[in-house]
Amino acid sequence: MSENMMTRIISGGCILVVAVACNYIGGPLLLGLLLVCSLIGLYEFYRACDVLEGGKRINAPTLVGYLSAIAYYLFLLFRKDTEHLLFIIVTMIVLTMLVYIFTFPKLHATQVAYCIFGFVYVPVMLSFIYRVRELEGGIYTVWLIFIVSWVCDTFAYLVGMAIGKHKLAPRLSPKKSIEGAIGGIAGSVLAGFLLSYFLLEKEMPQVTIGILIVCAIGAVVSQTGDLAASAIKRNHDIKDYGKLIPGHGGILDRFDSVIFAAPMIYFLLVFIVHGGF
């Protein structure tokens, strides 16, 4: 086993331990961890997209993004209704546009668009891990997010290495194959079935079929998130978003598929498992 692979396994194991502990406890601890990850991920995204001043320093529009992320998570902790959360998002857009207006022509329109998109892409979408955890049976169903992300990625890699012949997206990720993608979906469904059979049936009877559907769709979405992150990195000619996690890269490198999977899993659970809003 190579040194790099050992590093990936150790750091991945540490992430898993933290995830298990925080998801088990839930509440403010989980939300606080997600906020920290969001702020780091937001910095990585702004740096990759050349929004930061001088490539490193936080400027006025990115400061709006940071403050909006903090406000969004505080509102999520104390006021969970959709109207208040939408208020934060709309206010963030308005404030960013005001910065753009009063600093013109210092900022380019694309930088402003990246500021707004980054706020939605990282803090808002990542926060759905907490929202899933707050659902009925969320202490168990929150793991569906990681099943359709990390388990899917593992199965996709193993199946792709074994029988992968047809490229999935050669310009973005030459090593990914259609066979691997299908294997990732199958692995996610299998893991979801095991989770449902051994844990969820005790707390939420008759949900197995719904969970399988959630896992299948979630696995497709998570792979989309992985490829989307690759596309952004290739657009900006970078290999990794950061170096925070040894062997993995930055927060966004490790959670790129989770970011896409979390909101989709939430809405699928609400509609399919919990019977609507």
Which descriptors would you attach to this protein?
mainly alpha; 277 residues; 11 helices; single chain; 2 strands
Could you please describe the fold and organization of this structure?
With 277 residues, the protein is mainly α. The chain has one domain (3-273). Helix content is 76%, strand content 3%. It has eleven helices and two strands. It has helices spanning 3-25, 27-48, 60-78, 82-102, 109-126, 128-133, 138-141, 143-163, 178-203, 208-235, 251-273; strands spanning 167-169, 173-177. Helix 8 (143-163) packs across helix 10 (208-235). The longest helix is centred in the C-terminal third of the chain and has 28 residues, at 208-235. The chain is globular, with a radius of gyration of 19 Å. It starts with a helix and ends with a helix.
What's this entry about, in short?
The protein has 277 residues and is mainly α. It has helices spanning 3-25, 27-48, 60-78, 82-102, 109-126, 128-133, 138-141, 143-163, 178-203, 208-235, 251-273; strands spanning 167-169, 173-177.
